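Crash report, auto-generated. Payload:
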Amino acid sequence: EAGVVQSPRYKIIEKKQPVAFWCNPISGHNTLYWYRQNLGQGPELLIRYENEEAVDDSQLPKDRFSAERLKGVDSTLKIQPAELGDSAVYLCASSLTSGRGNYEQYFGPGTRLTVT
Amino acid sequence: GQSLEQPSEVTAVEGAIVQINCTYQTSGFYGLSWYQQHDGGAPTFLSYNALDGLEETGRFSSFLSRSDSYGYLLLQELQMKDSASYFCAVRDEGRGSTLGRLYFGRGTQLTVWP
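Recovered output after restart:
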């Protein structure tokens, strides 16, 4: 079974430039998450989707961040314009919706973003 | 809100046993998860405890005491490959859009020496 796929793995951009991350979750997982992880910290949720619906996006900085999950499968996360403080690893995860789904999440390898 | 406390670092030698503690404060509680993350890698689910007591999975065990808001991850017969960060996590059981949100601790960096 294929895991969560993310691209790109690494991205270096100058501040004020736009950047986009792509995620393909595990087949059959209706719940998709985007996290940001700073060095030495645990992942922090940015947005959670149940199918196509963003059910928890209160921690997404909506002035510069946007996300979409068309057709309830793949998802993209965009930052425009990027700031120096956005440098972090952006993780995508997926899980089943039912049962202990939220507790058992499957993470992709992440995108390491460096803003210069 | 939710808060989790775990030690920032733990060191041990190969073959030893190590315990990583986690205390939490939540507005509601349903269970505690543990994740492992190697440097540059993805967090990987290790275990989930919804009931008090010890859950064993091979060399790893996880314990939960809901009355003490406390849990731990026990790693036995340590191997070099166990060097990684370990995160405990709790789920938001409140009402509203944050229901189901997973909150992670800051992580414990385990270093296993030969």
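Post-recovery validation: Chain A has no helices and eleven strands.
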